[in-house]
Fold:
Amino acid sequence: MSKSDFSQSLLASSGKPQTAADQIPIIARFAVSDRAKETLNLVEKFVEEECIPADTVFHSQIGEGQKRWTTYPPVIDHLKARARKLGLWNLFLPKNHFKEGAGFSNLEYGLMAEWLGKSRTASEATNCAAPDTGNMEVLAKYGNDAQKKEWLAPLLEGKIRSAFLMTEPDVASSDATNITLTMKRQGNEYILNGTKWWSSGAGDPRCKVYIVMGKSDPSNNDSYKQQSVILVAAGTPGVTVQRVLSVYGYDDAPHGHAQIKFENVRVPASNIVLGEGRGFEIIQGRLGPGRIHHAMRSIGAAERALEWMIARVNDTRKKTFGKPLSEHGVLLEWIAKSRLEIDAARLIVLNAAIKIDESNAKGALKEIAEAKVMVPQMALMVIDRAVQAYGGAGVCQDTPLANMWAQIRTLRIADGPDEVHLQQMGKNENKRHRDIVEKLKVQKEKADHLLNEHGVQQKSKL
Amino acid sequence: MSKSDFSQSLLASSGKPQTAADQIPIIARFAVSDRAKETLNLVEKFVEEECIPADTVFHSQIGEGQKRWTTYPPVIDHLKARARKLGLWNLFLPKNHFKEGAGFSNLEYGLMAEWLGKSRTASEATNCAAPDTGNMEVLAKYGNDAQKKEWLAPLLEGKIRSAFLMTEPDVASSDATNITLTMKRQGNEYILNGTKWWSSGAGDPRCKVYIVMGKSDPSNNDSYKQQSVILVAAGTPGVTVQRVLSVYGYDDAPHGHAQIKFENVRVPASNIVLGEGRGFEIIQGRLGPGRIHHAMRSIGAAERALEWMIARVNDTRKKTFGKPLSEHGVLLEWIAKSRLEIDAARLIVLNAAIKIDESNAKGALKEIAEAKVMVPQMALMVIDRAVQAYGGAGVCQDTPLANMWAQIRTLRIADGPDEVHLQQMGKNENKRHRDIVEKLKVQKEKADHLLNEHGVQQKSKL
Amino acid sequence: MSKSDFSQSLLASSGKPQTAADQIPIIARFAVSDRAKETLNLVEKFVEEECIPADTVFHSQIGEGQKRWTTYPPVIDHLKARARKLGLWNLFLPKNHFKEGAGFSNLEYGLMAEWLGKSRTASEATNCAAPDTGNMEVLAKYGNDAQKKEWLAPLLEGKIRSAFLMTEPDVASSDATNITLTMKRQGNEYILNGTKWWSSGAGDPRCKVYIVMGKSDPSNNDSYKQQSVILVAAGTPGVTVQRVLSVYGYDDAPHGHAQIKFENVRVPASNIVLGEGRGFEIIQGRLGPGRIHHAMRSIGAAERALEWMIARVNDTRKKTFGKPLSEHGVLLEWIAKSRLEIDAARLIVLNAAIKIDESNAKGALKEIAEAKVMVPQMALMVIDRAVQAYGGAGVCQDTPLANMWAQIRTLRIADGPDEVHLQQMGKNENKRHRDIVEKLKVQKEKADHLLNEHGVQQKSKL
Amino acid sequence: MSKSDFSQSLLASSGKPQTAADQIPIIARFAVSDRAKETLNLVEKFVEEECIPADTVFHSQIGEGQKRWTTYPPVIDHLKARARKLGLWNLFLPKNHFKEGAGFSNLEYGLMAEWLGKSRTASEATNCAAPDTGNMEVLAKYGNDAQKKEWLAPLLEGKIRSAFLMTEPDVASSDATNITLTMKRQGNEYILNGTKWWSSGAGDPRCKVYIVMGKSDPSNNDSYKQQSVILVAAGTPGVTVQRVLSVYGYDDAPHGHAQIKFENVRVPASNIVLGEGRGFEIIQGRLGPGRIHHAMRSIGAAERALEWMIARVNDTRKKTFGKPLSEHGVLLEWIAKSRLEIDAARLIVLNAAIKIDESNAKGALKEIAEAKVMVPQMALMVIDRAVQAYGGAGVCQDTPLANMWAQIRTLRIADGPDEVHLQQMGKNENKRHRDIVEKLKVQKEKADHLLNEHGVQQKSKL
Structure:
């Protein structure tokens, strides 16, 4: 690549800063409506100009001691009001399945979610924060009218928050058939006993409902019909939030990742979702798009880390070997690789998003799994490079980097560890083996035939 | 990821084998015409059913000793006749720039080139082989009528072949300004002196023309105006093919990578392309799409390696630790990672192809550089895994793997080593630094203002 | 490798558990005295049976809120008493330089430090914790009698703790010449102004002395004579601990990594160490062995992570794909690679330790730098694998893994980032270039001569 | 790391070049006799001054066409004569097991083998080339007097060469129980039928004996008693060398990796080694030290690649971005990492060598496996960096790099692929699981007890 190649590109890039819409990879641009492009630009502006500055306030307003879990930072309510006013609300609900949302496709929301992922507050501000998003999808898709009225409506309004209780300590939680929390029908109630953990969001005082996966029919021959999903109001007698789990040293207050004990918790049978024994069906519908949302936000986090790395490298107070950091080839290579890795990962996510739009989450299993595995690994790498470039400032509270790293590190584990997904992807890919073996066999036969036809002896036999 | 998730996906994938068109990533599918899809399926069929079987014949027909360079495998002529009959000819010339080709976009040809890359003979059979493709583009774009008639016409007909002579031993060839071959005007002729190497294709007896980059005006103040490109007929007095360079033991006969000496070689001045001092301009136009072609073919090579790996893993004669290889988790993970890495790399290439289609090679510099760097590294990794899975058969002539690896290894070097591209990509990305530093500064000021407004003290000061 | 190979090894390893001394790599065993072997076994026993169980108590006794920094866990005093009784005290002071220590070589202490690194409390319990160790070395080596009496004696007794204040925010701290804290002589005092951060241990209420590096002669032409080291009593007027820095969310209380402001702090001139302008000399002597200590402890941390990984993999409650984790090839490969990587890193550290023993830290610069760069990267990889194997339990407080990872992550930054060391190692290695270029030239000439002598033409010219 | 640190080291390294003995890692130096050190320096001199220059002659003397396999380069006989004269002969036979050798330990030979590995001819010149070394060990250890007289004596004299025939196509050759070549006793003869491949050295016209592993008792219940080893004279009727396998594109003439067919080959029963059914025993004894030899030579190859890389980087004709390559940080980092990785790998090999010296190959299984897996991967990485630094010259015949890479690539496969060794190492390491699980359980109980004793509640429960 020659110098003048790049003088060209320099000229190209030295114009005025590109908008978020300008930055959509060209391969995906055709599938984005003009309305989505305008909204995307608005999201960018809201995140960069309002949410990121508010992140500092949010962080500083988190309580001390027990108050970490009984209060929440007031600044978030200002941001939510502002987002609603801007029309940036419930962006995540895909238009082809839900009428309640803002009317965007998964691809279009994906592009927006990338920007949301740059800020700690932006997702919640726009009512697009996990786990509420997945929970709202579950309620919208599978809830009955009463359930929707009681829980979905206030969730869509951003008035309450929710948690999804599936994972349990002491079992391999990546496989839902391992679940042990029991749900016994007794009259008009179910009695729940068991323990859940990594119940994210259950630390928040605004969390009013738990969507709980349990075993209602543990002896059913079909191991995928043993589970049910039931709605449990926070504060129901017998429910104890035992402790909050930390992620590296972060407790993620007020959100929190809770361990919750159920001791003879009585829940109205009418709170069952979709029907007894249909828990598996629900869980499946829930996981797909959620994985994409996490991936999308992680792309944004990686972009922010790259921005911080670039800022560091151009901090003229920092010199080593007598040169500013921006002239060190190793750091320039980190920047280049980060750019390339982010761009490749983004295409993988956007391709999955379009696949969901064109079929649905089940039809996009391969594409979703690819995004689920690839993106967090990429983002961790990019963020870790930025940490290293910052040195002491990178690992502490003076940059957003260490916290972003820790948050994204959990994504390699949540909803199944990378290794389980890779095994399954390997098995699926390997299903092609019969076709492949047959094809190679036929090719070899044809080659032998052709050799004969051309009167040639195959080479490399002595 | 649960079992039943994948039973679904199993059902989905157990239907009849997908065509090449079915396999286009959904994100790119919208931009592919129906005619291109039909042609793509035809390419797949031609490659899998005719070219790959013919590869064995091709390999076996290569001569021994000096005959490696004075003859060529006759089977290629059968394949070329067949390809023309099928309409698979000059697929590479993009429709928006050239009328002489088959009328496809870079994206569409990219999808086809992937299949061509699975076979040693397919690219040449369809008249889409490097370096002729790039050379034809140069002649079509920059050649005058006489030059076109003499060289472009027979190249488009597949009657002759060509070489591109730019790289020189003993200088850093990634920068064209370092070129030392001299071109001195003397009357109606240029006198050429110097040495070129890595002149790929110059070993072939059918190679009739060299496109030579030299310095016609070495003292020009503008270091990008010192170079010119001139057409030299093979066999011109003073031209000596000194030796053929091997690539990891392969001499790549009859193609060959030649070292060629020019001693007082007299070339008609009318053979200059575009005009004296315009060599740099030509070189730039040539490199972009060529990089994409290599990348596209490498994707195909990686796909073929993955097919061979899957075949190996399902070879029931191979067992370790009492289990067939297909039940070994490490190998399944290799398959999964290979699938994922190929898919990500393909999206990077297709995105670059669309970018070229929508603007041109100059407008797609970033995207082309990303493909140039990412794809060969990915393909080498995938192929090396397959080699390792095959053991002894992987490194020797019993599989196509070792040879594919060696070919693709050169792509990390050709047209500039990865590291030069990464440095340049890093510098370009770093051009954002002023905007970023300013943005972070403004965000900090806003945060301070907000803290004040909310009456909060920033946390983490004691 | 055949089955019966390993039946053999099975028999070998199924005997009674090896002691710590048995586990010394054979290559280093010859250099370890019998007394050191006995002490090593005692250290193992003390760490595994007393310190690791006490870690939980230590963690639970750390205060809440402001008390995190005004109290310290009482259990540590029990452990210290116990260690002294066992003779496990001041093990780190190398016998060939200091009479105050336990009389071991760097190699011998290195083997012990590995075990200390498995526990949060063991280093402090044996009075071998950073930064006191390096500070005691400085005082013992460079302090005058009064300084020794006032500070070294209580440090050696474990009665007080200390901090080393070198790094500053906003400059590239890897180069000591960048230091900005000023020390101005005024009568019998120095006036200190400036800010230090990453002053580890300064959070502890027992920390009574700061060893401070400042610029006493900023205009000295020799940039290595501008610095001095002075002892500052904690609580000296003008000294403010501004805040504590977190490491991936951990505040590391009561130890703490402090940011400390010096405003017109008056320090007796007699507190200067070694003499004005000799700060650089002191810093150099201090860093070498300290890097080795960190590396040694990190080896122990990696071993502990591997133990936890093995425990997890054999937890029969955890199954995926119907198999216990211990039958999953990917996890077995992680275990194998971890074993290999730990073993290689340990040899690098032990080789550096012997090199220091045989010469001194200056003579072992290459070996120390190798350990400094290699070990933390290795340990982070091993720990991260263990985190991944544990899933949710790995990232939270239920295992020691996440905290160990965060602690060790700082070692890639502290005392100069990896990249600075690698650049310097590269430059040093590159100093061989003249000899190498000359050797290759001579070899080529001899080859040409030999070709001639044997009447052979060099091959691969056509 | 500060500048003046390294000025020191600069002074140290700018003295006169170190001898080979000076370069022995200090950790291993104590175990090397003075005689070995002197011999080591002699080996260095012989390799650098005589063998490496002779490599070019050797390469150029290899025949063309069929003559590649019927002649061998005469220069090798000059080198052999020279080596014998210098006393550099049969260095490999370890003194504690064999009286026939030069009387060095495995460690001492290991250090020498590193230098031998830098040259193509040095191992053969000193009669230390594979597979003869392992074959001589087998004959010396297990052969009877007649066998020794007929085959060992001329091998020790360097008069004939030999091959070891174990691996077979179409089975997983890493497990010797899979072997299918049949050996049927008939009177005083065994009748052999089957096919072997990767019979390295069988291409050489001087190869006079094959050591063949076959199944003499396929129905034996003990699957490790089914195999026997028998000596077959080259040229025995029924033996056909079918073809030579290439390694990447290299045929490795005249050595060659042969595929050999046995059709009713009659071999005297007296040629059986050690006794019928004892093949497994023999194979085991053979593999251990051989793996170490390969590893040792690979260290030398990596050192040579690093030397070439340094030479390249200091080639002042090569500039990119206006700077000589030696000022590019990325390349300096490659050099530094290579230095570090080579040094770590060397310690792993030397530790294994000492372990063999102190016990034997069986007692050093873990250490040998570590070297077997680690060293080739390291060497491939280092060589590949050098290839990349050279660009076109790196992949072709103008440097020794591509060929070295291809040779070492086979070591990741030969004698069992890395993955099989890693699985076995993982399983072995995992045998500690009972002890570990018990230890962690006891530690937890003690912690609970201590918490109680100290009256503390465990933290991080709400």
